[in-house]
Amino acid sequence: MAYKQDYGRGNRSKTGYGIPAVFLQTTEDPKVVKMEESIAKRKALGPTADEQKNAEKFASNAPAGKVIPGTEFDVKSGKTAPKAFEKKLVTQESGDMFLVDGGGKTIASAKANKFNSTEIDALKNRYEKEKAATEGARKANTMAQNYTLSLAGK
Fold it and tell me: pTM for the full model?
């Protein structure tokens, strides 16, 4: 039998195509990276008159607690900081697991099963994803607010 080359195969190596997705993951949250880039661009261009006016207004309201939800103003440092993630995973003695909000209200639950842990694993994954997304957004919001405070000279 003769060698036959398939049409459209191209010159790709036979050991794989590209870099596996696991190696392409970054540790920094995309929201934080985007905010850093945005702040760097705004610093390079300099503030507009509207940005300066809004920064002074924000700086006067920040000590009164008028900041983006999920962040808080620290009077001592004069900067904003992200709040801690409120939701928690609670495990009972039976192995059942619950996702609880800051007020103690159950959001989701998973029954323990000694033969199959897919429900528990799914709940843990949900918690980790929500925590990472929330913390990334809060960190990005904090960076934006601190930049705004720096425009106002605080």
Answer: 0.74
